[in-house]
Amino acid sequence: MSFVICPLSIVPIRSSATDTSEIVSQMLFGELAEVLEAKGRQWIKVRCTWDNYVGWVAANQLKAITPAEHKAFSAHFAYSLELFQPIMADNQVVPIVLGSCLPNFDGMRFRLDGVSYTFSGQAVFPEHIKPSAEFIIKMARRYLHAPFLHGGRSPMGIDAAGLVQMVFKMVDITLPREAGQQVYTGNVVDFVQQALPGDVAFFENRAGRISHCGIILPDEEIIHAYGSVRIDKLDHYGIYDRGQGRYTHRLRVARRMLKGRALTQTEPRRISARIPNQVQLF
């Protein structure tokens, strides 16, 4: 069994072993993976340690580590909370993005492949995280205006499921990579009127399959990746784009990912029945 770590800012995970294949996800700096298979010297098939996602990565974009290092890095690390922040070494600077991992971080420095790096930004250790709706919303808002990118997981480009996954990663809640899998996690909120800020809403396409998701905000709004990370109105029917004057996504269900939050309220937050003068277009 062999393992690798991502030593670069952002590395694409592809659907097959070719540079022209679809980008299905990404690895960020410091994230770990198990090597499942090699195709020649150029490509390796990996299973990401954090979310078990499987795909192909160019072998020269990852760094081999020992099983002992994999165990140590998995047990002790911090998340970067900075949108963009360089890590500094004597002869190199590596820009890293929000949600990257700092292995064996001591609060100022860490070592990787014999090189000592300094990180001067804000970071948090998983064991110090106290998950809350307020923190989830704060992290989600940091991605505002990031462009939509299928398979993306960073402020340079992110998709809807990637946004939800990354935000909950930073409160140490592991979610699957795709919306169609995320919808089976957490607890169902029976009525959207009972949804709370920090809950996740899921949306279906015309075929009835889950194809989109976003994080519910206060004041009948949702933050999601659609063209870019943006905030739109949400009601029991779906996401309403005020600029276009139409619904863009049809609501299927809301789910509660935070543990210990009641699934009912004595006075549920009301979501308006429908927005006046709406046009239903999907």
Automatic annotation (TrEMBL):
Residues 130-258 form the NlpC/P60 domain. Keywords: Hydrolase, Protease, Thiol protease. It comes from the Bacteria. The keyword Mitochondrion does not apply. Pfam families: NLPC_P60, SH3_16. Transmembrane segments: none annotated. Gene3D superfamilies: endopeptidase domain like (from Nostoc punctiforme), SH3 Domains. GO terms for molecular function: cysteine-type peptidase activity. One of its GO terms (biological process) is proteolysis. Belongs to the peptidase C40 family. PANTHER family: MUREIN DD-ENDOPEPTIDASE MEPH-RELATED. This is NlpC/P60 family protein.
